[in-house]
Amino acid sequence: MKKFNGSMSRLGLVVSSSILGLASVTNVQASATAGLMDVYQMASMHDATLAQARATYQSDQQGLKTARSYLLPQIQADGSYFVNDSSNDNSDMTSQDMSVTLNQSLYQHETWAGYEQVKQSLQTSKYVVQTAEQNLILRVTEAYFNVLLAQQDLQLFKAKEKADKTQLERAQASSEVGLASRVDVLQAKSSYDLSKSDRITGENSLDISLEELSKLTGKSIRHLKGLSMQVVLPKVDLNKANLEARVESQNLAIKQAASTVLTAEQEIEVQKGGYWPTVNLQAKYTDSAYSDFTSVTVFNRDAQKTSIGVTVSMPLYSGGGTGSQVSAARFQVTAAREALRDSQEQARLDVRIQARTLEAGESLISALREAVKSNDAFLEAAEEGYRVGLKSLLEVLTARANQYSARKNLVAAIHNQVLTSLTLESTLGDLTTDDLMLFDKLLQEPVTTAKPKA
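-> structure tokens emitted (454 positions)
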């Protein structure tokens, strides 16, 4: 498997055979069930963060055109119209001047360096857009599975509340006929009251996760496909040497930091322009016309004039300003290089931690699946033992709490495993919609729909 990307923060898996639901409304019918790709397509058209990054990149593209324009000829047209009235009637006249001037920079160090700097800065902006695209995949998947996990938790809380209520009714009935003590009733009521509070908390959590998903998509969600608790997750290559090699060459944070270093180095060249001469070519055509004069002189005759030449400007002393600006730019390069080193070290650390977490996660999921089986069996035995008087009510309640805890922990462990896998792929800079499609194929139609009452 090439990638394991994405951002599945809260992989809602279903306990027993029920699968979570809540559905999308984009190009899917209101009664249809949406998957990851459906939700992502809605978010990609609606998300403001991604739209902002793309608009900034487009703005930077225009900045490159602006920088290039300084290297091209600059053509300017000028015109004037004057009526001259003086005490000397011979000087009275009307003059009209029209001119066209072409200026072409032949050599200007800071202009060329600035153009190269803007090109490099545009590359940095491109990495920012790619990062925003990856982050959207992560945020969409996280919000999607947050809803599923919240719904799964709510299903567990409701099931436990129902079981605890039944247990309380049995204890009360047994107490009335002298087969159970007051302590048994109080224990059952305590467990039931806690279950009700968990259910209320679960309903609120589901409402919040639904709102967060709606913010991303701009749509109201009703049904989502879910993952079975027995889902087989794709394997990930956890060879740490391979992962570190990939992260060095592909990580977007490293690429962005390296590009920032090159941009900062170009700033040194821009500031060094204060040491170099400026050479420009200028060509000018002027047409002068005169009227309303009383006498003809050499100064008021109509004329056309063409001139072409080269100007050279050499800075001699700027009060030390150029030197300080160059020094400041060099310090900025040093700062950018340190930021690059920090990005490299952080990326290597992240990839090692994520690989180790995935290794431990595989073992944890296997252990929790066994824990679910053993706790199911233990609860069944405890309930049977209570019926024949071999187990106390407290033991039954503890067994039931352990059963739901084991299921909840398994769901959370699978969620963490998927989230870590996707985060690893993002750290490697290799997260795309192909990864969403990979997990989209694992999703199943929900068997039940659990949505808190308004």
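Strands lie at 13-14, 74-84, 93-108, 227-228, 278-291, 303-313.
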